[in-house]
Design goal:
169 residues; alpha/beta; Rossmann fold; 6 strands; globular; binds guanosine-5'-diphosphate; binds magnesium ion
């Protein structure tokens, strides 16, 4: 049986969380904004290194960051911002806090989405935040699919290492 791993995709509304999950699981970009209702859970088989795992992806709507029960048992959090909106990067500090306080052992990956549109503020700021979070910083585009597989495989990899760490402790 495949091992099931829960991961969170978090960030302000309209940064492209749902689009990234759709591009990753369905290989399509609908270009539509559907105001996600609270929570969407999608499962997808992913490779973590050379092991297949069942990723349970929790896409949490922007306004639900305080619903800490959604984070329970998550092994990794993807913190997404929009490279055209500086404010969405600033807000990630709040999301990071929620992740760290509810699931302290979870791995974290910082993602700047909509890279097809280009940065409208220094990319360095995203890198500094990722540094502060002790997390890798990656950019992606849900629109053209650039690095979408990579960000989710990085997330899966971090999730697996966090579970392995937990087993040892
Ligand atoms: N240009 C561009 N637009 C995107 C990208 N990802 C999402 N969008 C658009 O941004 C809006 C919000 O996306 P959505 O996935 O619903 O954001 P969410 O609220 O974080 O789930 C939609 O109109 C998407 O079409 C991207 O990588 N590039
Ligand atoms: Mg959404």
């Amino acid at each position: 049986m495949l091992r099931s791993i829960k991961v969170i995709v978090a960030g302000e509304k309209t940064v492209g969380k749902t689009s990234l999950v759709e591009q990753y699981t369905l290989g399509k970009f609908s270009g539509q904004y559907s105001h996600s209702l609270g929570l969407n859970v999608t499962t997808h088989i992913a490779m973590a290194g050379n092991r297949p795992v069942k990723l349970e992806i929790w896409d949490i709507a922007g306004e639900y960051f305080e619903r800490t029960e959604f984070y329970r048992n998550a092994s990794a959090c993807m913190l997404v911002y929009d490279v055209t909106k500086e404010k969405t990067l600033q807000q990630l500090a709040t999301w990071l806090n929620v992740c760290r306080s509810t699931v302290p052992k979870a791995g974290v990956v910082v993602v700047g989405n909509k890279i097809d549109l280009g940065y409208r503020f220094p990319q360095k700021w995203g890198e500094l935040f990722a540094n502060y979070a002790a997390a890798p910083h990656l950019t992606a585009s849900a629109r053209n699919g650039d690095r979408v597989d990579l960000i989710f495989s990085e997330l899966a990899k971090r999730a697996v290492s966090s579970i392995d760490l937990e087993k040892k402790s």
